[in-house]
Design brief:
- This protein is of the alpha+beta class.
- 26% of the residues lie in helices and 26% in strands.
- Strands 2-1-3-4-5 form a 5-stranded mixed β-sheet.
- A hairpin with a 7-residue loop joins strand 3 and strand 4.
- Helix 2 runs parallel beside helix 6.
Length: 295
């Protein structure tokens, strides 16, 4: 006897899981500007932002408040809190981090996660984007000319700045996107400095950082692509990449390399897994990646 619920789920198109629903964007930094244009038309949803939703309670880039967990856990907590205060059953939250690139440690990178939580269908689907295109930076300055030099380097005034006495000072002047405002902040803070130096850093909040907002949009696009991958076993959206297998054979000697041989996808709903060989379209690796041919 067939399972009618599984059959019906398998036959539903991806957008039918979400259409005509309200999705709560758990943000206070205008991230809906990057998220809504991508998800609203594709999923036929309406994205709403809750009033006076304080995401700073889940951590700040300026270190006054620490994150309550890792990047994914923090995004998840934001989404669940938004659901709690609104009574909705669909939420989207994002969380960013800035650190050395996992494959190229000398390069700084921005990793963005966008998480969709659907209580009605017991789903959590994750989008991710990693980019080395970031202006994340800081500098100590002694005068306004040095501040202007740093500001030019990071893309001011399109990208905002933060001024403080030192990196750990909680009295920060944030969201500076005007040269006169920057000059006033520099002069005021310098006048109270006991060292003759003050601290400048990029304002990494989304609405003050177009480069980061673009990365959030890319992570949202990845989220949508993941949502649109439905499990071939039960039809649930979010058939997600969970692991990669190295071992692509060298094109010269056939020895396994560290290059990707296969990707493993899994459904969180039914547990079904699928291994996809040669995800990059290559059946052999360049010998430059072979420890025998290019030791």
């Amino acid at each position: 006897m067939r399972d009618e619920s599984v059959t019906n789920a398998r036959e539903k198109r991806c957008e039918e899981w979400f259409q005509h629903r309200i999705a709560i964007a758990a943000t206070m930094h205008q991230k809906e500007r990057a998220i809504a244009p991508i998800l609203e038309p594709a999923l036929d949803i309406q994205i709403r932002v809750p009033e006076q939703f304080d995401t700073d309670a889940f951590g700040t880039f300026t270190r006054e408040i620490k994150r309550p967990g890792d990047q994914l856990e923090t995004a998840r907590r934001k989404a669940l809190k938004a659901l709690e205060i609104t009574g909705a059953d669909l939420a989207i939250a994002s969380e960013g981090s800035f650190a050395p690139h996992p494959a190229f440690p000398m390069l700084p990178c921005n990793r963005e996660l966008v998480v969709l939580i659907d209580v009605a269908h017991d789903l959590e689907i994750i989008g991710e984007f990693i980019s080395t295109q970031t202006n994340f930076s800081h500098r100590s300055v002694e005068n306004f000319d040095q501040a202007k030099e740093f500001a030019k380097k990071i893309g001011f005034p399109d990208h905002g700045l933060i001024v403080s006495h030192d990196p750990d000072d909680s009295r920060k002047i944030k969201g500076i996107r005007d040269l006169d405002q920057l000059k006033e902040a520099i002069e005021t803070t310098l006048s109270k400095s006991t060292t003759g130096k003050i601290h400048l850093e990029t304002d990494m909040r989304a609405m003050y950082n177009p480069t980061r907002m673009s990365a959030i949009a890319q992570a949202t696009q990845n989220l949508l692509s993941t949502i649109q991958q439905q499990c071939s076993n039960c039809g649930t959206p979010g058939f997600q990449l969970i692991d990669r297998q190295a071992g692509l054979p060298c094109g010269w000697c056939g020895s396994p390399t560290d290059q990707t041989l296969a990707q493993i996808y899994a459904c969180k709903k039914c547990g079904y897994q699928q291994t996809k060989l040669y995800p990059d379209g290559l059946q052999n690796a360049d010998p430059m990646y072979c420890q025998f041919c290019n030791p």
